[in-house]
């Protein structure tokens, strides 16, 4: 399968650049705190589902989570795009409902 052009690394660069420009990286940031902030955005998405169920509100919270993840990857030099490619390739080889967990 040919390698498709992906914009993940471009989004990572842009999200991190904006966060730096807005002052979020003037001091060192704790990895645990940053992961908790990512998690909080997922919790907000769940709350949006419970309260409104409107796709636009849910999408906004999920976008916030992605922005936090992309910012983190930009700050830490993580090539998320390549990691996604590898993980998707691996997942294609996994058995149906691997682990049989729900």
Describe this structure as you would to a colleague:
This protein is mainly α and 102 residues long. The protein has one domain (8-93): Helix Hairpins. It is 70% helix and 0% strand. It has helices spanning 8-21, 31-51, 55-76, 80-93. Helix 1 (8-21) crosses helix 3 and helix 2 packs antiparallel against helix 3. It is globular, with a radius of gyration of 16 Å.
Name the features.
single chain; 102 residues; mainly alpha; 0% strand
CATH topology: Helix Hairpins
Radius of gyration: 16 Å
Which class of secondary structure composition applies to the elements? mainly alpha
Shape: globular
Helical stretch count?
4
Short recap of the structure:
By secondary structure, this protein is mainly α. It is 70% helix and 0% strand. The longest helix has 22 residues, at 55-76.
List the helices and strands and how they pair.
Elements: H1 8-21, H2 31-51, H3 55-76, H4 80-93
């Amino acid at each position: 399968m040919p390698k498709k052009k992906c914009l993940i690394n471009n989004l990572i660069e842009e999200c991190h650049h904006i966060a730096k420009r807005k002052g979020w990286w003037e001091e060192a940031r704790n990895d645990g705190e940053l992961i908790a902030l990512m998690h909080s955005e997922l919790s907000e998405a769940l709350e949006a589902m419970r309260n409104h169920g409107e796709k636009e509100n849910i999408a906004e919270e999920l976008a916030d989570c992605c922005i936090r993840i992309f910012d983190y990857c930009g700050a830490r030099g993580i090539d998320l795009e390549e990691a996604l490619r590898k993980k998707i390739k691996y997942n294609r080889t996994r058995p149906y409902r691997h682990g049989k967990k729900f």
